[in-house]
């Protein structure tokens, strides 16, 4: 098979580098800029804290935390992160660490002082509200409290008094007759419950007054804006005061002193106003200083973040190296793209010169039996289709890549189910908008659905183009046919066409509609049977071709990896089995189309198994068909044991020969220990052979293919089902919504009907049906196509690259 772009993954090689310690950092940094090596972890048994550069990684993590703290402070202050106008020389990591620590200490000190001043400001603001609002309560409150006290004295010792043990209380509380008060603020939502608890605790011997503050007040404890009420509680007795204080603390009420003398009240108001003014000036000065510091940080923040991320990534990679203490060097292994080795060596030489190392890095390619990673060079068009394949599984190294064929087959199978050139044009216009604005949209944060649509914009582009093509074949424009390619091949029996719906039309001799379906089928009584028959047979043909393509790729895989057993005992019987049954069915469909026969293909295929030697009668399509069917059936029967038995037996024989040869090699080696070691190394790592397990695996593969040949072929009938459903939904929306609204000859009804038609078309046909057809096409590729040849058990080539760090940071 000729080489194709993307068909096989890039050639990979395992390289080993012996790097001097003094140039290790610069070497890894230059390789990170190059982005062409995937380093292997040579210390898999060590925890992160046991690695060589664990302390450096920890330092970078701490600096990253400090930078995130700076970024959050800058964002909360509403300061824009300034872009760096000039490229400054990279500062040393130690210098940056000291600078960040100083900035963090300064900012935390500013924040601590500001929080303390802010709390004092909030408390003074509440105190000012108490001074302003509590005065009006005292005249009425004291009168009510005195009246309550006199009532209490009148009913002293009464059994109906709310107080118990009055005499004992009077003896232990001689100051009970004196009136006291507590003032403060409490959240508005707690006022009613607060008053109720006070009433119960004091047995009703108190007067509670409150007034709602017009605007929300900053709470000193939380710093949040809260609606509060100023309250005053008048009471009598020290015990009652103690209860009220505890209840205030439990409800989170703020208590403030209130002087009784008017002169002291005026003096206190003046003092509070002066202190608030001073605190406001101090807070503004602190905020201005903080903003100045943050503005200076913001100018270099992005550069520092990128620098710390790179340093952390470099030390993380260096932790994967082995330390050779005797030679004071680091040993690294990495997978490299074969064609990039020259660029890697140039980067190593540049790192040696820049670090002033006396010894250069030793770079050598090593042989290994480990499976290399898979790497395909894609662009923004092929990358989307490669992503569809990788979602199923990453290709094994050098395995045939289904993405090469998926670029064509995926949008085509989608279009077979979605075919309508009107819907395809709408889909194309939406996709062109995404493509023409991809620079603008790519820099924005899109939602999940919009992000997926934008990422697959080139997939949708091909899907829309193929949908327009199949729409022309189906001759459907929002379910309306057009005579684009010429006149119909059918004419009326007379010029009046009165009997066109009863007697039908007649075909013009020697004339066929040039392209696609004849528009005369639309709306006829035989439209649905005709479309059902054509689309169902077309689905089978497409499915058989698609599955045979998968089998052909399995042959090229086996041929590339030099696996003759897979060719002779897997590919050959599989292609014969599939061709003798469903290839034969496809041939019968083509013969029936070409000959115009009325043969029943269901009958032919069923009795091919039940009675292969019986005469076919009117269902015979060509002479000798019975003998051909018997021969094909024999091939299918023979193909099953051919898939099942020879391969496990051949693998068993191969294993016995290798084991037999190895035993003789050890005996002939004698005392030559080196030969024994070489032989051991040659066979080291070979998997043990278990014939029972191999046979069971082959039996499962055989059963799966035989049953899957039937189920997979039937699975392609979804092309027919979804195509028919799409056409019928489109016809229903057109006939029962748009045409029905037009028939009323009313402008308002027409506008409403047009709006409903547009919403139904966009919501159901252009969104839901697009998603449905996409998922069904995805299933046909993952299961029916890739299941024939694709292992998908490889792993992705993920080179160490600073560009990836920048993309993740932007995301």
UniProtKB/TrEMBL annotation:
Topological category with respect to the lipid bilayer: Multi-pass membrane protein
Transmembrane annotation, as ranges: 412-436, 457-474, 538-556, 568-591, 626-645, 748-768
Keywords recorded for this protein, A-Z: Hydrogen ion transport, Ion transport, Membrane, Transmembrane, Transmembrane helix, Transport
Primary localization: membrane
Gene Ontology biological process terms in this record: vacuolar acidification
GO MF, one annotated term: proton-transporting ATPase activity, rotational mechanism
Entry keyword Ion transport: yes
Subcellular location, record wording: Membrane
One Gene Ontology cellular component annotation held by this UniProt entry: vacuolar proton-transporting V-type ATPase complex
Assigned protein family: Belongs to the V-ATPase 116 kDa subunit family.
Biological function: Essential component of the vacuolar proton pump (V-ATPase), a multimeric enzyme that catalyzes the translocation of protons across the membranes. Required for assembly and activity of the V-ATPase.
Protein name: V-type proton ATPase subunit a
Organism of provenance: Selaginella moellendorffii
């Amino acid at each position: 098979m000729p080489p194709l772009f993307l068909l096989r993954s890039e050639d990979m090689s395992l390289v080993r580098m012996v790097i001097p310690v003094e140039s290790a950092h610069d070497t890894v940094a230059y390789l990170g800029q190059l982005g062409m090596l995937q380093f292997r972890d040579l210390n898999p048994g060590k925890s992160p804290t046991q690695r060589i550069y664990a302390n450096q990684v920890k330092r970078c993590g701490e600096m990253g935390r400090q930078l995130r703290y700076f970024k959050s402070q800058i964002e909360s202050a509403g300061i824009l992160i300034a872009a760096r106008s000039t490229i400054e020389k990279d500062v040393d990591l130690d210098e940056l660490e000291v600078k960040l620590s100083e900035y963090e200490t300064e900012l935390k000190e500013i924040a601590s002082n500001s929080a303390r001043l802010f709390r004092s400001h909030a408390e003074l603001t509440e105190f000012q509200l108490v001074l302003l609002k509590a005065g009006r309560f005292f005249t009425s409150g004291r009168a009510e409290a005195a009246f309550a006290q006199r009532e209490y004295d009148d009913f002293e010792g009464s059994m109906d008094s709310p107080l118990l043990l009055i005499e004992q209380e009077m003896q232990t509380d001689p100051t009970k007759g004196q009136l006291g008060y507590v003032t403060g603020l409490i959240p508005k939502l707690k006022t009613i419950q607060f008053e109720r608890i006070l009433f119960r605790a004091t047995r009703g011997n108190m007067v509670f007054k409150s007034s709602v503050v017009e605007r929300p007040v900053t709470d000193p404890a939380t710093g949040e804006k809260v609606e509060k009420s100023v309250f005053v509680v008048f009471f009598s007795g020290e015990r009652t005061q103690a209860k009220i204080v505890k209840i205030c603390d439990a409800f989170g009420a703020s208590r403030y002193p209130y002087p009784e003398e008017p002169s002291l009240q005026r003096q206190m108001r003046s003092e509070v106003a002066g202190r608030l003014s001073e605190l406001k000036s101090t807070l503004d000065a602190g905020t201005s200083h903080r903003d100045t510091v943050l503005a200076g940080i913001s100018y270099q923040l992005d550069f520092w973040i990128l620098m710390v991320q790179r340093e952390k990534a470099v030390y993380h990679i260096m932790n994967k190296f082995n330390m050779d203490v005797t030679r004071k060097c680091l040993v690294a292994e990495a997978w490299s793209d074969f064609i990039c080795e020259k660029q890697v060596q140039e980067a190593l030489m540049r790192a040696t010169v820049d670090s002033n190392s006396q010894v250069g890095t030793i770079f050598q390619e090593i042989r290994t039996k480990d499976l290399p990673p898979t790497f395909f060079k894609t662009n923004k068009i092929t990358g989307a289709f490669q992503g569809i394949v990788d979602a199923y599984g990453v290709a094994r190294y050098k395995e045939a890549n289904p993405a090469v064929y998926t670029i064509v087959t995926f949008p085509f199978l989608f279009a077979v189910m979605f075919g309508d050139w009107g819907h395809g044009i709408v889909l194309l216009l939406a996709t062109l908008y995404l493509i023409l604005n991809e620079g603008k949209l790519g820099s924005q944060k899109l939602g999940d659905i919009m992000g997926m649509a934008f990422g697959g914009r080139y997939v949708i582009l091909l899907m829309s183009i193929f949908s327009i093509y199949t729409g022309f074949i189906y001759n459907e424009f929002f379910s309306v046919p057009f005579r684009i390619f010429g006149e119909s091949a059918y004419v009326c029996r007379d010029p009046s066409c009165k009997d066109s719906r009863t007697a039908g039309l007649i075909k013009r001799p020697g004339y066929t509609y040039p392209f696609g379906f004849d528009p005369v089928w639309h709306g006829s009584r035989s439209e649905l049977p005709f479309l059902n028959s054509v689309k169902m047979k077309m689905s089978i043909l497409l499915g058989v071709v698609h599955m045979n393509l998968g089998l052909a790729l399995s042959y090229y895989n086996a041929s590339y990896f030099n696996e003759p057993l897979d060719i002779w005992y897997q590919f050959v019987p599989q292609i014969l089995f599939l061709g003798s049954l469903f290839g034969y069915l496809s041939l019968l469909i083509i013969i029936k189309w070409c000959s115009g026969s009325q043969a029943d293909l269901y009958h032919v295929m069923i009795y091919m198994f039940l009675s292969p030697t019986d005469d076919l009668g009117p269902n015979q399509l060509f002479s000798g068909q019975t003998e051909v069917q018997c021969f094909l059936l024999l091939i299918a029967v023979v193909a099953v044991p051919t898939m099942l038995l020879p391969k496990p037996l051949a693998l068993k024989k191969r294993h016995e020969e290798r084991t037999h040869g190895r035993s003789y090699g050890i005996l002939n080696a004698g005392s030559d220990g080196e030969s024994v070691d070489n032989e051991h190394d040659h066979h080291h790592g070979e998997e043990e052979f278990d014939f029972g397990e191999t046979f069971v695996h082959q039996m499962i593969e055989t059963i799966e293919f035989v049953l899957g040949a039937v189920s997979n072929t039937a699975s392609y009938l979804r092309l027919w089902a979804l195509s028919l459903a799409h056409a019928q939904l489109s016809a229903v929306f057109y006939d029962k919504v748009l045409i029905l609204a037009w028939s009323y000859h009313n402008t308002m009804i027409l506008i409403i009907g047009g709006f409903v038609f547009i919403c139904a078309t966009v919501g159901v046909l252009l969104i839901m049906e697009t998603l449905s057809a996409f998922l069904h096409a995805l299933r046909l590729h993952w299961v029916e196509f890739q299941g024939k040849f694709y292992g998908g058990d490889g792993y992705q080539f993920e080179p160490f690259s600073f560009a990836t760090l920048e993309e993740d940071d932007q995301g």
